[in-house]
## 1
Amino acid sequence: MDIVIGFLLVCGLLFFTGGSIGILRFPDFYSRLHPAGKLDTMGLLLSLLAMAVYVMMDFSIASFLTGLKILLIVVIVFVTSPTATHAIVDAGVRAGLKPWTKEGGGGV
Amino acid sequence: MRIRENNVEQSDAFDETGNRQFQRIKQTAPAFILTFVIAIATWIVLSGKFDMFHMTLGVMSCLIVSFFSHNLLFYNTDIRRLPSAWLRFLYFFPWLIYQVFVANIHVMYLVFHPHMMDLIDPRIIQFKSRLKHPMSHFIFANSITLTPGTVTVHVSLLGNYSVHAIDTLSGEALPGDMEEKISRILDE
């Protein structure tokens, strides 16, 4: 069981690292939101799953409730993370920032 | 005779208002009960205490909350169709998780690729969706943001989407399969 938890945690951290590097490497505001919105959600899902498994290892009602709370966090992040990403993109479009394209350049 | 007629009329009128009230209660009661059930389930999970004091407190606050906001969560929905819609959503959810996983692998590949700038070709694409229910628009827009190389920029109520795609390949897949699956949940 410890192996599963460790594996999930390492995968989650890998996704978090990818997200941070992606934010630094991508060319403009809009494309930077791709790793920010997706990889962070996935990293959080994996690491919180590892925590839920770790907490639920001893079978009792209290630990089961704690696991349920952690899963509730996952659900809330799955709803709010795309919504927040969308709000940021929408703010960029309203402010008139042009997306970077291969041919035309555009805003940074 | 006149008095009796009057009486009859009155009782008819009373019947009608009573009937209307009954209709209103009948319409709002399922939403109220469902909101209450969801609220109390959340309360139990979050509090984790089962003694008399905490349970009474939970029931009271959940009653107040569901009294004020029972038309918030189930706005304009046919309650009888909800259980099957939830079942279909549960069927859709593992597929969404799988798509999210594939999307993440794809973005990870792009992030760590040495010639990343040659691979990506960001552009905003527009398309029209045939979804009708506001809830399916919400699910669809958020699913687009979570899956392969695409972020929803704007959705109008009429179903005009503009989506920022990281490369041409992921943009071409829209609306496609996902819209089909979501339309099966609520619209039919």
## 2
Amino acid sequence: MTDETIKEANPGWHLDAGKVAKDLVVTALLATAIFGSTIAYKTVSAEGGLALETRYDIAFYIIAAVVVGRLILWLAVWSRPSGHRSPVMPANMKASIAFLTTKIGKGFATTMLLIALVFPFLPFTDRYLLDLGILVLTYVMLGWGLNIVVGLAGLLDLGYVAFYAIGAYSYALLAQYFGLSFWICLPLAGILAAFWGIILGFPVLRLRGDYLAIVTLAFGEIIRVVLLNWYWFTGGPDGLSGIPRPSFFGIDFNRSESGFAHIFGLEYSSSHRIVFLYFLILALALLTNFVTNRLRRLPIGRAWEALREDEIACRSLGLNTTTVKLTAFATGGMFAGFAGSFFATRQGFISPESFTFIESALILAIVVLGGMGSQIGVVIAAIVMIGGFEIFREAEQYRMLIFGLAMVFIMIWRPRGLISTRIPSIFLKEKKAVSSDMVSQGEGH
Amino acid sequence: MEYFLQQLINGITLGSIYGLIAIGYTMVYGIIGMINFAHGDIFMVGSFVALIVITALGLTISTGLGLTILALILVLVTAMVIASVFGWTIERMAYRPLRGSFRLAPLITAIGISIVLQNYIQITQGARVKPLQPIISGGYTIMTRVDTNGEFAVQISNMQIMIIVVTVILMTIFSLIIAKTSLGRAQRACEQDRKMASLLGINVDRTISMTFVMGAALAAVAGLMFLLYYGVIDFFIGFVAGVKAFTAAVLGGIGSLPGAMLGGLVIGLIETFWSAYFSIEYKDVAAFSMLAIVLIFLPQGLLGKPEVEKV
């Protein structure tokens, strides 16, 4: 079928064969440069130096796949008449869709909460799923904590994992050196993390958005390098092991007379502790959510959101932006500290390896992909991301690659995240959700 | 004194490498105001491509001098071209669709691309470190000191001379491109006012793409230098080198080409002296703290222009 007949058969088509062919040739050349260099040849250690291993077949298949993929895109997507590509919605329709999503969102949040509450008792829930649930909830909590900093105050923090690490190490070290229990250490860890947030934040919070991002990244790395090298105190790369497990408000989970199972007249099971950990992290996460929602209504929360929208306007209205930023930083850090001490008690072992930049990137991805400032968006994104990670567990090597690609594609597809509507925290007459297209946001400068 | 001189030479060599990477950050930030987080990983890719070509050519220390120089030029050109293709493709696919979106969006895709590149190289080239036998040997002894502790010689190796000479040559070439050619003029115009530049008939998208290409090419040069100097690379070298080079760019004054080079030298010297006189474990902490200190006390950098905040 020639190009002309295609055009006749589908009057709306715009397919310029010459242009497509040229584009495909360019694509093939680029793909050859990219994959032909790094996939076709692999350096391997050999006797007396390095040798090359060739994999022309794999490289060829991948290049072919890229070209064919591009051709399919041309035929299926880009050949459509340009008028149909992106239907423009009228503003009132957008607003009503936004309203609808909030309605659904509300019911959805309640349903999610109910599912979360009964999850450990569902018949199909086994140890593996429960562990996964704990993991997801940990990231939900971290996401909510970071949401205060990134979503509400509009400060991009690339070193959030530092506070998580501080919380974890605070508990582990306090337990090791002073024998303090989890319930005393939990608030202490939060306070210490918040304290560090203030110390680290004070000098740098005057900086503009992306500079701030890089400095927080540097701080995250500094904390990790210090943990790694302060051998006599933190155990260095060996980490800290034998961190005490949590007790049920003082009652241990063991077989003894004073154990949890005996006191409550239950048959001893190792899953009691896991279920308890599950509810513990659920409670901590809900606490984070509750505090955030309350803070949003307080002057400080409104100051955060005002800061996100326009820092210069904030300053001219007399807000002390440094203090406002600092509180956001410290509050976010505190919740990461709580999550960190939970992480330490759940794992029983921590090492600096758990607190790399990738963790920060993952939490940030959850917040951004969920829709900055949206609490329920964080939950959905955490389930999708951590669940996705589990699905690709088999492909251990490839899952970070897929994670990175997903981050890029979702960002291009929905730059404002999955849930991009805004509900104003104060309103004059009626509460109305605003589509994010109508607000400028997250400039963070 | 002799020890100091030796560290000075080492620091300048390291600083040249950082400076070359920093140029990519500074040019991109100057034009589109975005931190190209994946730039450090382009440096890493360039370094791996160089390693592959060196292995393919079978370059060893016993190769003759003339042949080694020719082969290294070939390696350099290949690495520059392939890294440029990476840079161009990344800009086209991950950054351009987000131009005009909110400010943090491209930074987040850049983090995604950084993760992709690291894991791509880890999968295709293996996670182990890649050692390379030294290719260029020899050097000159500048001065020696003999005392009770024995002999201490201040040396500058041919390798170090080569790195410094290549850096100076490339810096000159690229400064000339920016100063004299129409592309450079377009770049400077875009840096000042993108909208006005496009009104005057400059293809802004193409100019930005070319900026990424130039940055990636220089990063690949740095990658080759790093590979030859240290003789060992892995898929993770881009991250730390990237943060340090970014520090260099900020220190020199972001948007300024000589500033990036100067910043690179300062960071290289700080790192070398810190390792030499204090502790080698905390050398990254020194570089990262330097970044924070510079941003707090000297946000416009050494050679940069102070930024005017517009409402």
## 3
Amino acid sequence: MKKTGFAFVLYILMIISPIRNFIESIMIAHMLIQLPLLIFVGWLIGHFIVEKFHSLFNSWNINGVPGMIIVVFITMYWMIPRTLDEALTIGFMEVFKFTSLPVAGVILFDSWRRIGDLGKSFIFLNYLSMFGLMAWLYIDSPIQICNNYLTGQQRILGWGFLIITLAMALYTIQSVFTDHSEENVL
Amino acid sequence: MGCLEMTTIVDKGELKSRNSMIATYLVIGGAVIAVMMIFGVLMLLAQGGVLDLSPAAFYQFLTIHGTGMIGAAALAAVGLMWYFLRDYVELSKKVFTWNLILFLIALVMIIVGVFSFEYASAWTFLYPLPALSAGAWGIIGALLYLGGMLVLGTGFLLLYIDTGRAIIRKYGSLGKGLGWDVISGKKDVKDAPPATVIASTMVTIVNTTAIVAGAVVLIMNVINVINPAFTFDPLLAKNLTYAFGHIFANAIIYMGVIVVYEILPRYTNRKWAVNKSFLIAWTMSTAFTLVIYTHHMLMDSVMPKWMLIMGQALSYANGIPVLVVTAYGALMIVYKSGIKWDMASGLAFLSMFGWSVGVVPAIVDATIVVNHVMHNTKWVPGHFHMYMGLGAVVMLFAFMYYLAKVDSNLKPNGLDKLAFVCYTLAMISISAQFLVSGAISTPRRWATHFPEWMGPALFGAIAGVFLVIATSIFITHFIRYIIVRNKTGSDFYERKLA
């Protein structure tokens, strides 16, 4: 319940116009702070929602794979540069962003517990390559990708993605090369 | 070696009746390899001036030949690795099945892309070629090919995640799977992981890295094909392409060699000794395989110099240690063992010869001063046809005969032995004609040859016909095994041992 309350406060804070406008005025903050925080909100309320609608989640997301596919599609959608632009210029797209990403967070919470080690590793590596791709795209693109952000901003975002990619790669390396003898799983 | 003798030396782990999926992997892999050989013969006939093949068709054949060969050999090699690795760690059959399903989907996508939509960039799909075909193919063909490669990579990625997880679960970490605790002296060498686990760990590490790198550059190409306004650094694209392609192709032999580690000890009743040199050699190969792809870029003068020097120096340090410890180990295990040669052991031993000699032209070409002259000639296909055709693929055929032997009562006949000789001579001839073509400066990947270049190509095409015949005999034997096995049931082991 505490988590749900925190999620509620966080969500309200992000909706408040000055905060929202400030975050969305900086491309890297929009993509790498606001969007993940909206997913995080969904993750935090996930426990509450999933408990409440336990049988509903069990009926369609028993092994977590359908849920993960939805999460991947929603997050991929919001990584497309054009969608960022549309969220800034079309009102209902902004509403869609503020609803779809928390929903993704809820589904992620439910799915992550269910998909097992193999699924987790696969999703993790999938995002690693996807973030690497986004880094390259935003750093190297010779054209302005978004109408609302200048090329300098998109390059900064690209470097942000690159740092995340490198961090994920380092995490993977330490994870597979440190001793898991005492554990039963990766 | 007779059946009765064989049954005395099979391990307990072999007493598994569910080899159907592995047989499916091998028969699909083998059949695709045979069909790809036919495309190879057709290309050589065209280059030899006796077959009127349009350049567009030639480059489509070139694309399917390279992609199909590597894909099919990797598929069969994974089947081989999985068969032996499951004796040491717990693997998921579901993932193994999914890899095959995704491979078949990818195969259909690639075939449709190449032959229905005339996609012909060669396997290298070197940016920006997929988008800049000068009208030779369109967006759909490129997307089908690139998408097919992504689907293929997805299947293999799932499989390597599974092998990695299984190795970590059993041994603690991938480092321990490579025997680092033994190298550092924390553990006694007698407790070192088996050779199969070491090789599988190495392949898991390098191929997971390769597939992740490949996914990035493939999707980047997809974006460029859909919207050519998005342009990217071609040098980075080339680096990622070869980081993917080189590693993935190279890893086939490291999966295939498991058959040598597994069957020669069973034939000779001796243990394959894993010692510190062996472990160090495999660790070196793991590290260096990841970085030596730069030897494909020695002609790219804009590459950082240190990377090119690294490409040369580490290419020497990469394959040779593992080759030496494996070849030496194979010789030692066979020496005065009283081994009775048959198709499986003979092919396994031949593969060691192929690997050893196939490395030589590679090392020559990885030398910068030579590379500047030879890299765009047929010298390079000379190297990899010898290395793959006489090394890696022979390991796969060795495994096919081994599996047929231990899992059924089928015996090879005189025709199989004839095919062995025929395959060996044909593959040596094909490799030699490529090397000779390289030596007389024949460019590679050219649909049309000057008359002066045609002789070796024609010779190679004739040898290729014999190669196709020999390969067909190998595969026919394996198909006969599947038929016999279906009739006798899948519990042959148990009945044989009872």
